[in-house]
């Protein structure tokens, strides 16, 4: 919509401990380019072409700048320092937002995000305040209890992805809360501030690169 400011906070401040690679997974190569470049490119080339705020651990700022130079990566972005947990990295990214607008938070390590999902997430957030991308469970689901396990209705189970998109005032207010260990994503932070979360249909290809085998899968999806 004309006059509306769009942002994408790309969080890449993690160390990738489960990947067990020499460099954090957001810098590993996928089809000869770092994972992070695919992710930024997806948002930059989207219809709303948001201002990109990239959050990386301070230790990797120069490393990233060198990568940009080697790969001739020129998409404009603001580089911000990461924090202890994902929560703190998002909070740092939010400090860079000066004008109200619509803010997507996206994991640096979800490079296979589609244009369709990005567009529908920004659109819904603009209309109703938030949009959290999710996919319905494909498998049967059981919950482990103190006494055994219990079958859950999978029609009611959704797996949450990113982007998670919000009106900036909603997201900034939510991130004024103290950190809690159950804040594993932005939706959990915003929900605790009293806002109802609205899901939108995601894509099973929008995987989060977490373990070594995920690199091959992402490579296949991007080819
Ligand atoms: N302090 C942190 C921790 C995580 N992230 C980012 O949040 C996203 C999702 O986190 P995850 O996949 O858990 O990444 P890591 O924390 O790097 O991985 P691990 O948990 O295996 O150490 C990633 O893009 C990661 O870089 C971040 O910006 N700042
Ligand atoms: C934000 C997220 O990607 C939504 O699925 C997820 O919660 C990140 O979790 P992680 O433990 O930091 O990988």
UniProtKB/TrEMBL annotation:
The record marks 154, 208 as: Positions MEP for the nucleophilic attack. Pathway: Isoprenoid biosynthesis; isopentenyl diphosphate biosynthesis via DXP pathway; isopentenyl diphosphate from 1-deoxy-D-xylulose 5-phosphate: step 2/6. It is an enzyme of class 2 (transferase). Its EC number is 2.7.7.60. One of its GO terms (molecular function) is 2-C-methyl-D-erythritol 4-phosphate cytidylyltransferase activity. Keywords: Isoprene biosynthesis, Nucleotidyltransferase, Transferase. Pfam families: IspD (PF01128). The keyword Transmembrane does not apply. One of its GO terms (biological process) is isopentenyl diphosphate biosynthetic process, methylerythritol 4-phosphate pathway. The record marks 18, 25 as: Transition state stabilizer. It catalyses: 2-C-methyl-D-erythritol 4-phosphate + CTP + H(+) = 4-CDP-2-C-methyl-D-erythritol + diphosphate. Catalyzes the formation of 4-diphosphocytidyl-2-C-methyl-D-erythritol from CTP and 2-C-methyl-D-erythritol 4-phosphate (MEP). HAMAP family: IspD. Belongs to the IspD/TarI cytidylyltransferase family. IspD subfamily. This is 2-C-methyl-D-erythritol 4-phosphate cytidylyltransferase. It comes from Daejeonella lutea.
């Amino acid at each position: 919509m004309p006059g509306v400011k769009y942002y994408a906070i790309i969080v890449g401040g993690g160390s990738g401990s489960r990947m067990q690679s020499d460099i954090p997974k957001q810098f590993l190569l996928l089809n000869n380019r770092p994972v992070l470049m695919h992710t930024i490119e997806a948002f930059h080339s989207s219809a709303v072409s948001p201002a990109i705020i990239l959050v990386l651990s301070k230790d990797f700022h120069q490393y990233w700048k060198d990568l940009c130079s080697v790969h001739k990566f020129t998409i404009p972005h603001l580089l911000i320092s990461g924090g202890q947990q994902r929560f703190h990295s998002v909070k740092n990214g939010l400090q860079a937002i000066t004008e109200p607008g619509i803010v997507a938070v996206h994991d640096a390590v979800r490079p296979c995000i589609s244009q369709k999902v990005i567009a529908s997430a920004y659109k819904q957030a603009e209309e109703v305040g938030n949009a959290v991308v999710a996919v319905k469970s494909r498998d049967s689901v059981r919950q482990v209890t103190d006494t055994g396990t219990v079958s859950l209705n999978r029609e009611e189970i959704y797996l949450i992805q990113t982007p998670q998109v919000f009106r900036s005032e909603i997201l900034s207010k939510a991130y004024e809360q103290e950190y809690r260990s159950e804040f594993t994503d932005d939706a959990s932070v915003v929900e605790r501030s009293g806002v109802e979360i609205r899901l939108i249909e995601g894509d099973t290809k929008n995987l989060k690169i977490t373990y070594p085998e995920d690199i091959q899968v992402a490579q296949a999806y991007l080819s």
